[in-house]
Design brief:
82% of the residues lie in helices and 0% in strands. It is mostly helical. The protein has one domain (27-314).
Length: 318
């Protein structure tokens, strides 16, 4: 009778743990999808600021993001981590470098959206996982697996086709892909969480950004408080567009395995791709069609390789 009771108890506990794990996974998927949907739909937001230059938008995005992130960091009891990182010379130097890289990424992206290059921007985020593989080989000494080589060859051929056949070098796509890849690579060096790291990056950038915003206002070239209340609110809201998807993504990444996150991440560039064609009617010629098809094939090969690799390392028998 005692043994039977123990079995019932342990079965109940296992069932409860499985239910909790399933609930965490569901919440992780919902948070991840929401994060990438926000990132994918963000061109709609930045298009609303067509009266403001991309450079001024970035300055406001940096400053207001810092003021939004700090209360979040304090609320989530990460302020001690913030102080520890900001007082470390190594961490500050690394995060200064990443802050420059991420601001370059932001500026390029918003400029691309404002100038009707949403398709190129989406291509940049499509090829980002493949660029990560390439950077890992170059800087971290990681070995290519066969299917990874195939995917990189297909992706490279697609970009070269667009460049040489049509004469259109996709510099926006490559700059976005490589800047985001380098950002992730360098951030691996410093042991700081994504939320605290972004808080420090925006803190570092907010000092020169704030000074330059004041200068623009004094010489009468600032859109803030001059164009209209709607524009002012959208500039202030840039902080939420920056912080909310990051917080959701961090929440998601902690509850899902990498392969699941890898699939979810394609939602962002796919939504951007559809916006560019269906909403903003960007030109989509035959060379671009072939390029995107090539990139999608490369990503399919890459995803298959990731699934196989994940199953191999998670299978205890192998």
């Amino acid at each position: 009778m005692y043994i039977i009771s123990l079995n019932i108890y342990f079965n109940h506990m296992n069932t409860k743990r499985e239910a909790n794990h399933q609930q965490r996974s569901i919440l992780g998927v919902v948070a991840g999808i929401t994060a990438f949907l926000i990132w994918g739909l963000s061109p709609i937001y930045w298009k609303e600021l067509y009266k403001v230059s991309a450079s001024e938008i970035i300055l406001h995005r940096i400053v207001w993001s810092f003021f939004l992130l700090m209360p979040v960091i304090i609320f989530r009891r990460r302020f001690a981590e913030f102080i520890s990182a900001i007082t470390s010379l190594k961490s500050v130097l690394i995060l200064t470098a990443t802050s420059v890289i991420v601001s370059t990424n932001w500026l390029t992206y918003i400029w691309a959206v404002q100038n009707d290059f949403i398709l190129q921007a989406s291509l940049g985020y499509y090829i980002n996982p493949l660029i990560n593989v390439l950077l890992g080989m170059i800087f971290l000494g990681e070995r290519f697996r066969r299917l990874q080589i195939v995917s990189l060859v297909i992706a490279t051929g697609s970009v070269l086709y667009l460049t040489f056949y049509y004469g259109e070098f996709p510099w926006i796509s490559l700059l976005l892909g490589f800047s985001f890849g380098l950002y992730g690579l360098i951030r691996k060096i410093v042991d700081v969480g994504s939320l605290v790291g972004l808080g420090i990056e925006t803190f570092i950038l907010s000092i020169p950004a704030g000074i330059y915003l004041i200068f623009l206002h004094q010489i009468g070239e600032s859109a803030f408080l001059k164009v209209g209340l709607r524009t002012d609110l959208f500039l202030l809201g840039a902080a939420f567009v920056t912080a909310i998807p990051l917080i959701l993504f961090t929440f998601s990444a902690r509850r899902l395995n990498l392969s699941t996150v890898g699939f979810i991440q394609y939602i962002g560039p796919t939504v951007m791709f559809l916006l560019g064609i269906l909403v903003y009617n960007e030109a989509f010629n035959s060379a671009q069609i072939i390029t995107f098809i090539g990139i999608w094939i490369a990503l399919a090969v890459y995803s298959i390789d990731s699934i196989i690799h994940f199953k191999n390392i998670s299978d205890p028998i192998k």
